[in-house]
Design a protein that fits this description.
Length: 107
């Protein structure tokens, strides 16, 4: 199952990569953290690792390691503005529960 991005997220990712001057896409991962157990990790990807899964969506490349893909399959990454705050939002169908602060989740 793939991971997708909205057009809003794609525009933001493309803008970041352009300003940065290098990069092939955005790497998404899941790490152990927080009170619910798992947290999202986002970083620029300059190269693909041998076992990375690559997904193309709205003109951007998303790279995910196989272990993280088990938790991210079917996820849509969005970029939202709410009042004075803005940031990436994970619409992950695998999430069963989140901590109160929204920093970590359970599947």
């Amino acid at each position: 199952m793939s991971v997708t991005v909205t057009q809003s997220a794609a525009n933001r990712i493309s803008s970041f990569i352009e300003k940065r001057g290098k990069g092939i896409g955005l790497r998404l991962a899941v790490k152990t953290s927080g009170c619910s157990g798992l947290a999202y990790a986002i970083e620029f990807a300059d190269t693909a690792e041998q076992d990375d899964l690559l997904f193309e969506s709205c003109g951007v490349t998303i790279l995910i390691d196989p272990k993280s893909h088990a938790f991210l399959a079917g996820t849509e990454l969005d970029f939202v503005r709410e009042g004075l705050n803005e940031g990436f939002k994970f619409n992950n169908p695998n999430v069963k529960d989140q901590c109160g602060c929204g920093e970590s989740f359970k599947v």
